[in-house]
Amino acid sequence: MAGSLFLFYAGSAFCSGSFAVLLAAVIFVYFCYWLYARSISSPFNSKFRRNPEPLITDKKIRDGVLKQGFATKKLPDELDAIVVGSGLGGLTTAAVMARMGKKVLVLEQHDQAGGCCHVFEEDGFEFDVGIHYVGEMVEGNINFEIIDQLTNGQLQWVKLDDDFDNVVLKKERIPIYTPEARWKKFLLEKFPSESEGINRFFLLKQKVLNHAYGFMLLKILPRRLANFLVSSGLINWITCFYRYNDMPLVETVQQLTSNPKLQAVFMYSFGDYGTPPGQCGFAMQAMLMDHFVSHGGYYPRGGASEIAFHMIPTIEAAGGRVLVRAPVSQILVNDAGHATGVRVKKGQDSFVDIFAAAVVSNAGVSVTFERLLPKQIAEKSGFLTPHKGVHPGYSCIQAFVGFEGTKAELGLPAHNIW
pTM for the full model? Predict the structure, then answer.
């Protein structure tokens, strides 16, 4: 990859002209959508938000929301949609549909809703299994505003320390600070002989962010158009994002600096997306680091289960339900190949068929197309073959430790250690 960084820097100038044309088109489309949106009810209307209420810690009340077991008598009539899986993606989809007045049923095979946002108790301690921090939870950010509206303003966030992440190399601790200017200044002072590599790293990271629109572009375009743009190579004339993502993280960082400590600092957080630095692109790491460095890390007050606890009432307010211990064994389809409902396993040998106008799967690509859909439908969809390269993520071992005492009494900082 010798000289590749120079080529990418030069190539970004070429992309800027295409970007101007694309930006003009996007503005036009957005303006048309804005005119249309003014005539309909918005799912994020501020009228749904109310002042935060006291934190609910009563286990019985919380279980009444998060652990509603499946039973046919609990099924709403005339469903508009069924969502398979109550992870954050499934709950968010259901909550947005509920905001539009749709009656949605969310089915979860586990004994509580929330996916990686659920918690468990052991010896009097409550442990979170997934979320350890979230970035950009500040007013005005689209991620914050969406989840704030879908939880009626009840989900509150606590900011971590400014050194939200700490990279420990043997006995040396290297903090990752927010805001970015402070972190960059710290790195330049700590690694004075690496100023060129540090400056190039931040410059390259910003170039990725300037073309980040390309990350979502292919997701919102019709599939045939997206496939054509990729196969023809035209996507690289529209955005440089995928060129940056084809740059292996390890090789890119090695070109920026030969200092092993600085290399570790530039790549340390790959565990957040579960792919080793040798197998992921630089763009993924750049976007992740900006996600946290821009405003720091945040944690939901009361624990990760607060997300599902406050999103489920939004779904129920429109007549929907979120039911657990409801393993979906099959997505039902009609002769035309359209999804019409799901089959839920109940007991050893019995099943319950539930029908709705739409079915949304939050069970993942592999489970959805290899297990839930009939084989002929999965093959015809076109999604099965391209995703043969999608495999389960790397395994990890988690150790949960409980300490008696408050944060202040124990002198515990609010940051992560890598």
Answer: 0.85
